[in-house]
Amino acid sequence: MILTNIESVPGMTITAQYGLVTGSTVRAKNAIKDIGAGLKNMVGGELKSYTELLTEARKEAISRMEQQAMKMGANAVINVRFATSSVTVGAAEVYAYGTAVKVEPKG
Amino acid sequence: MSDIIFLLILLGITYLTGSIIEKRHFDNIKKREIALIKKPIINFGAKTWHTNKKIKKIELVTGECVISGDYFKNFVASLKNFFGGRLTTFESVLDRGRREAILRMREKARGANFIINTRIESVMINDNYQKDTVPQCAIIAYGTAITYE
Question: What is the pTM of this model?
Fold first, then answer.
């Protein structure tokens, strides 16, 4: 599955398009890690456990989007965008969306 | 009285830790940015971008970072908020977070020639209903990495 966030796949031509595909996920860390992050919050710096959480959430959102595209028979998703929102403390929502298309190599 | 002493100690400790962490982080960011200077990010005309060269690999690359301020920064900002103007203590925090996310994205695209159409998405994940919470910002940077044959 080819993913791009531009409106084409360079070097390939789009032969069919299947519309919007989306994938979203809301994830949280366990309470112990929340407390750890709360302490880190006081002294400053990067909150590594939350970064991890964000990475997991992003991977899951993308894989859900890919699955949806695969079911439609697409082999690429173009113009992928991410949206994030804060649902509650210590949780992250990541939403990925794009256009599922079928591409073929040029020539 | 003991409350004030406790507050002063807390401010002193968080000022020290916050500034040490920030200085180290900025040093680290600068070093990595210099190392990546030959791999450009192209953002103009990226949507209609095309080339005649043979392309080996097209990949969506992402970089994430959750950054937080510290208690001292928050305290200074809440004082400054009263008079208005620049909240410099938060500017540096968000700057660090964004640059870190972009760097992680660029580091993932190690073999690529360049990255086009980079976007940055951010959200505050702190508790909005509770007063005096230190801001935490989650940042995702993403773009399309192009590798020529």
Answer: 0.89
| Residues of the domain holding B126 | 2-148
Rounded Cα distance, B149 and B133, in Å:
50
Helix (H) or strand (E) holding A57: helix A48-72
The CATH number given to whatever domain includes residue B132 is 3.30.110.70
Tokens of A22: 């989306």
CATH number of A2-105: 3.30.110.70
CB B60 to CB A8 under 8 A? no
B107 touches chain A (CB under 8 A): no
**Cα A76 to chain centroid, rounded:** 15
3-state secondary structure of B67: strand
Q: What residues of B are in contact with residue A82 (Cβ under 8 Å)?
A: 62, 119, 121, 140, 142
Best residue of B125, B140, B147, B149 to probe chain A, by most A CBs closer than 10 Å: B125
Q: What is the mean pLDDT of each run of 10 residues along chain B (149 residues)?
A: 88 89 93 88 77 85 91 85 84 92 91 89 74 79 91
